Each structure stands twice: as structure tokens, then as C-alpha cells.
Amino acid sequence: MVSLKEIAKSCGVSTATVSKALNNKEDIAKATRERIQKKAAEMGYMLDASARALRTKRTYNIGVLYNDTKNAGLAHEYFSSILESFKKTAETSGYDITFITHTIDGKESTYLKHCEYRSFDGVAVILADFTDPEILELVHSDLPVVTIDYIYDDCPAVVSDNTRGLQELVRYAISRGHRRFAYIHGEMTEVTRNRMMGFYSACRLEGIEIEEKYILESDYHDIEMCAERTRELLAMPNVPDCIIFPDDYSYLGALQVLAEKGLTPGKDISVMSYDGIQLAKAIGLTTYEQDTNALGRIACRRLIEAIEDPEAIVEHSVVMGKLIEGRTVTQKQV
Amino acid sequence: MVSLKEIAKSCGVSTATVSKALNNKEDIAKATRERIQKKAAEMGYMLDASARALRTKRTYNIGVLYNDTKNAGLAHEYFSSILESFKKTAETSGYDITFITHTIDGKESTYLKHCEYRSFDGVAVILADFTDPEILELVHSDLPVVTIDYIYDDCPAVVSDNTRGLQELVRYAISRGHRRFAYIHGEMTEVTRNRMMGFYSACRLEGIEIEEKYILESDYHDIEMCAERTRELLAMPNVPDCIIFPDDYSYLGALQVLAEKGLTPGKDISVMSYDGIQLAKAIGLTTYEQDTNALGRIACRRLIEAIEDPEAIVEHSVVMGKLIEGRTVTQKQV
DNA sequence: ACTTTTTTAGAAAACGCTTACAAATATTAA
DNA sequence: TTAATATTTGTAAGCGTTTTCTAAAAAAGT
């Protein structure tokens, strides 16, 4: 490719001058600047990211980490949708996105090492086992890090208001006359704990008793397991009148089971879930939509702030979602 | 970070020697090599990718391009699932994945420029408007490129056997007694053309007449539009007995419409679609599963071949899918 | 013991860029 | 006009690697 040197030669100036001209530095005459920029464009000049990075210690490259081993990874719409919005925001700020792995040169390594190798300016941890020592190491390094849906005290985080989400769902169902809830929740992560807090507190506030047997653990994004739990639930003597599922996607498992039993959601039984992915809207599922767009955007902004101003105060942002009123919660007569 | 120089000092050798030792070059004594490697590990040395790239012109970084403006982008399970498998393969071969954009430094640019800027070793074009001049420019540059589901003569490609896929679907439905087909297909891309070829040829071979009015154009991944087309179809005087939809996801739109009309798929009417995403399996949809795993893996292998051996012959691989027999195609009495 | 060959290590340049500092030129002040 | 100041350009070093070529040391042949 054509380099600074060639432009310098062609313009009869030094490479320093060319560099300054192309970077719009102030200590260069306007006429020269323009002449050089024009020439550079003509010659099809393109900056070499490696060379600049080597010199400036800035890569304008952000590492994105996810290690959702168990389930869907990228295929999880929640994740991909956050990533998409993160990427867009990064793009307009001049940053690129590279996936973090823990292999370097085909050899096993650690996340942190990989980040050092690539000299990422910062890192976003989006969907991960936040107790993984390798991730802890990364988070506690001096690299700027932002986490999504998990809070470490010392680094910026963007979280969804999971507690409020479940509160709203429960209150909505109560307002439509439901009293006997079941909650099939996801695996016991921080997110789940928050949701359960919302669930219990809303019930208590409304004076509703929760029988423990109606609280079942499943997994996020796991259609099979969710189907199984639903089957268990429906086999109980006193079937609840409203079931809350871990997420929209896993609800698809339940959908089948309900059909088998001849139950129509929104008529014979009420169901709600969480996420608000497109699929949910398509099938009219009542759910709580996470604002993945905001999550990605804000996370990216926070990270870039942290990168560009190391003294920036660590902030934890909470992003509100909204109830999507589908057709799966019946209006009961009182 | 600790650099070659510091290891050199600490070991009392030159940086050249350290470099050779760490790269397992032959012209270094085994004892020194081991001593240096040990020391490097102790000191927590990590290679600097920028420096190496600057010197060697190899970044071990692959650019991935998708520009699915209209619809889902990353959220498309077909895409994310290919990407996931591509990424895994790249990882084990020592390559990282970075998204290609057409902004550099926050300013509009072109895909090709961005690739030059980042010095990608190669590029994968996965989901894109393959007629976009910017993409053509990229593909016809001298960068190694692999395309997925689209073939340019002069660069390696991995494609799904779309023609065969539709043939199998049609033949399956025919074997179960269907004769009156409707096909709501996606927008007119190469993929769609291939699928239609499969559709028409299978019908012809089985001596089945296709009425043009039963062939409707919709979009991939567009629930709304698919619902609308389905509605149109169901309003026709002679409702077809088997409808083929663009893809599993958009079928969700049809699902609603069918329910409205009181039609149960697999009982009152038969439906099939394409992709074989998890969702389809969950709801028992008869579909043709694309082997996204193989698509991603093979694409990555081809690309790395092209990168590492510029003389490698250009190969186009076709990946077979398989029919997923769900519960949405009835068995008719003859 | 002396040459020849092989093995091992180092010196130095280069990759493309930025930047502190010095130098040259133009502008203004006195 | 001359000195002081402001503006513009250039010099050169350095970022962390790799690599070619040279040199020294060790091993092998005579």
C-alpha cells in the first residue's frame, strides 16, 4: 500500500509534515495541509492501523467477550441484538469490534493475554460466567472494561432493570385477576436473583402467597428443559393460573406442552415471559421487553468514556424495559 | 507490557535471539531456547500483534462482512450460527475475527479501505447484497475472500444446496399426497433463484402444474410481510393444500394468520419452510435444515487456505442440508 | 594442528507511523 | 533596520517485532 513516505516524496515534504497534515494538526499551513490531503486521496493512501497502534498505543479496537458455553452464544437474540447496537455505536465513534478468545496463535491462553496481544483499548463483557477466574482477572486488570447485566463495583456496568421487570409483569397479571402464580426461572445468576426479588416483592406487596412448589428452576434459552418443567407444573393438583417463563425463547417449549394438553394460552391459562424478542411479538406473547438497543449503546458509550478518560467516574447505568401486552394473559372476571 | 528487549536484557542475549527462541526457529541452541522461553513465561511476556503485523504484514485477523440492512443482521439465527462456527474454526487456527465496517476513524469510507486499514489477512462475506459495488470492489481486490451462499467465479465460495433443498421438500410433500402447492419465497437473490429452480423442477418431474398466482414474493425474516402474503393466499378461491414459506422465522407470521382462520398446520393445511433453526424444531415445523455448522467451518477453512497459499485453486463447496420431518405436513389418503 | 563445515548468536535495518524538539522562515514590534 | 515573536517545516528517534547477513564458536574432517 502507499505509505506516508511516498506521499512525502510526491509532495516534496517530510513524512512528519504529511502525518500532521493528515491528522489535521494545527502547526501546519492551511495550504500545505490541503495540498497534502488532496494528494493523499489521489494516491489512495490508507493509514496502517498496526503502525499507528505500535506508535501510539491506541488500536481503536474493542474486544467483546462472551462465553455462553451452555446455550446459544451468538444465536441468542438477546445477545446478538445488544452486540448489534454496541457495534453500531462503536462504529460511529471510530472503534472496531473484535471477539476475544482465549487462544493465541492456536495455543490455549487466557482472555487477558489475548487482550494484551491485540492491545484492545477496552473490553466489553456481555454474556459470560461472571465468576470465571479468567474473567475476574480481566475485569480487575487495568484495561477499561464494561460489563452488561452484571455489576462489579470497580468497573462501569449497564444492567437491565430485572427486578422492576418482574414486578411489572406480576402486577399486570394481578390487575387482570390472577392470584396463583408459577415462576419457572433461569439458572441462578445475578440476573435471576434480581428477577426473583421482583417477583417476590410484587407478590408480597399485593398480599399474594407463593407456594414454593410453583417456583421451578430451568435454564435460559433451553426449550427442552422449559417444556419439561411446564409438564411437571401442569401435572400438579392445583394448576396455577399464570406461569412466568425464563425467557421468550424457552417458552417455545412450553407452547408445545400446552398444546398437547389442549390449553390455549390467553384463554385457558395465562403465560408471560421475559426479553421481548421479535418472536414474542410475532406470537403475541405477553412479555417484558429489554431495551437491548439502549443496553448496547450505553455500554459502548460508557466504555469509550472509560477509555478516553481514565479518571472518569465509574458509573452503573440501569436501563428500563417495558411491558409488552400480548394476548397471553386473560382478563378474569372478579 | 514486557517486551522482547527486557527479556533479552534479563537473559543476557540479543532481541534477535529472543525472537527466534520464542518462534521456535531452528538456528538457536535448544538450551538457550528453553531458557528464554522459561524466562519469558516467568516475566509474563506477551507478543504485540501490532508490532508483528507491521513487520510481517500478517495480522492473523479475519474481517467478517455482513450488511443485511433490511432485516435482522446479527439477530438472524442463520447468520449468527454460521458466524459462530466460523469463529470457532478461526480460533483454533490462530485467527481472530473483526467486523468490517465502512467507517474509519468515524468517517465514511469503503469496505475495502477498512480492510486495508486493518490489514486483514482475509475476508468473509456472509450475508450481504452481493451486487453492491463496494462489495464487488472488495471481492475483486487482491485480498483473499470467501463468500457464503453466493458464487463469484474467481473466489472461493461455500453454498448451501438450495436447489436440492426445495426439491426434497416438494418431493416429501408429494409423497404424502399433496398436489396443490403455494410458495411464498424471499426476495429475488441468487439463493432464491436456486430454491425456485428446485421447486419448479421437482414439480415438473412429478408432473405437477403450478399456478403462478400461488407463487408470491415476500422477504426473508420478515414476519409481517409473510403474514400478509399468507392472508392473501388464504383468501384465494382454491386454497392450496401445502404452503412453503421463505424461512422458519418468517413462518411465525403465518402461524398467527392460520390460527386466526382456525386452521391447524399439519391437520387442516400443510406447511413447510427452510432453515431448520432451533425454533423450527421446537414447534415441530417441517423444514429443510441448512448445515450452518459446516457452512461456517468450511468457509473458514477455504479462506485460510487461500490466505496461506495464494496459489490454491479456487474451489466452490456445496454443503448438503437435510429434511426435518416435523408435524406440519399431513399424510393424505389417496 | 589446521582447515572446513556446521551450529549458534548478534548487529542492524526495516516495517509505517507519531512527536518532541530543533531549525528555518515569516511576521510583528521596537 | 534589527530584535523578538509567531508560524511553519524538518530531523530524528522510537514504538516492538522479524530477518538478513555477518561473525564467532564449536564440531568435524584432514
What gyration radius of chain A follows from the Cα positions, in whole Å? 26 Å
Oligomer kind = homodimer
Strand proportion of chain A, as a percent range, falls in 15-25%
Rounded mean pLDDT of chain A is 94
Distance between the termini of chain A: 76 Å
User: How many helices of chain A does DSSP assign?
Assistant: 13
Main sheet record of chain A? 6 strands, parallel
Numbering strands along the chain, what is their spatial order in the largest sheet of chain A?
2-1-5-6-7-13
Sum up the overall morphology of chain A in one term: elongated
Report the helical percentage of chain A: 40-55%
Overall structural class of chain A, as computed from helix and strand content, comes to: alpha/beta
- The tally of strands of chain A reads 14
Largest protein interface, residues of each chain: A-B, 52 and 52 residues
Write down the secondary-structure element order of chain A: HHHHEHEEEHEHEEHEHEHEHEHEHEE
Point out poorly predicted stretches of chain A. Answer: none
